[in-house]
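Q: What does the assembled structure look like for these inputs?
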Amino acid sequence: MTVEGKVVAITGASSGIGEATAKLLAERGAFVVLGARNEDALQGIVDKIIEAGGKAAFKKTDVRHRRDVEEFVAFAVEKAGGLDVIVNNAGIGPISRFDALRVDDWDAMIDVNFRGTLYGIAAALPVFERQGKGHVVNIISTAGIQILPTMGVYAATKNAVRTATEVLRQEAGPHLRVTEVSPGIIATNFGDTITDQATKRKIEERLGGIAISPDAIARGVLYALEQPPEVDVGSIVIRPTAQS
Ligand SMILES: NC(=O)c1ccc[n+]([C@@H]2O[C@H](COP(=O)([O-])OP(=O)(O)OC[C@H]3O[C@@H](n4cnc5c(N)ncnc54)[C@H](OP(=O)(O)O)[C@@H]3O)[C@@H](O)[C@H]2O)c1
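A:
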C-alpha cells in the first residue's frame, strides 16, 4: 500500500492539480516525471521536489502533439527505468455559450483535453504491455456530471475521456489499472484559460468562494495508486462540500 519507488508521469504538471499531485507523490517516495509547456515552471517544481529529498525530472511537452507525448513517456522510461503510472491531467477550459461561436476555443479543448489524453494512453500502453503492468489515471471533471450552460464543449471533451476510460478499463485485462478522477471546483490557474471575458467574470463570481485546494485531488490520485495491484479504483469524484 505505497507509491514508494513507482514511476509516475504527469501531464499538465506545471501548475494546479498536476503540480500538487507531483509534489505529494514525490513526498511519498514516487519518482515523478512532469510534462507541460512552461519549462521554467516545471524546472522550479522539480528543483523544489529534489531539494526536499524527492526524485523528479521534467520534459517540455505539448499534449496536442502525439510525438511530444511519445517522447515524454520515452523520457520517463529512460530516466527512471520504467513507467508505472501515467496521469493524463493537462487540460484547458475556454468555456462560453454556443452562440458566442468561439469555434477556435472548441477546437483547442478537443485538442488538449481529448486528443491529448488519447495520446497519453497511446504512448503509455505499449510500455505497460511490455512490462505486464501499468496504471492509467485520467483527470476528468464534475462539469461532465452536472452539465451547465457555457460548459457544452468542455463537458463534451471530458465525457469523451470518460467514455474512452470505461472502454479502456474493460479492454485492459487483469494487469492494467484504469482510474478516472473527476474534480469539482478547485483553486488553480484554470480560470485563466477562459478567453470569453463575460463568462470568466460570471464564473469567478459564482465559484471563486467555494474552490478547494488541488491537494484534495492529489490525495485522491494517491489513494488510487497506493491500492494493491489487484484493486482497481475505477472512479473518484471530489468536489467542495459547498458545490451544488
Ligand atoms: N480547476 C478546476 O476547477 C478543475 C475542475 C475539474 C477538472 N479540472 C481539470 O484538472 C486538470 C488540471 O487543471 P488545473 O485546474 O490544475 O488547471 P491549471 O492550473 O491551469 O493546470 C493546467 C495544466 O495543463 C497544462 N497544459 C495546458 N495546455 C497544455 C498543452 N497543450 N500541453 C501540455 N500541458 C498543457 C498547463 O501547463 P502549460 O500551460 O505549462 O502547458 C498546466 O500545467 C485539467 O484537465 C482540468 O480540466 C480542473
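The CA atoms of residues 144 and 159 lie 6 Å apart.
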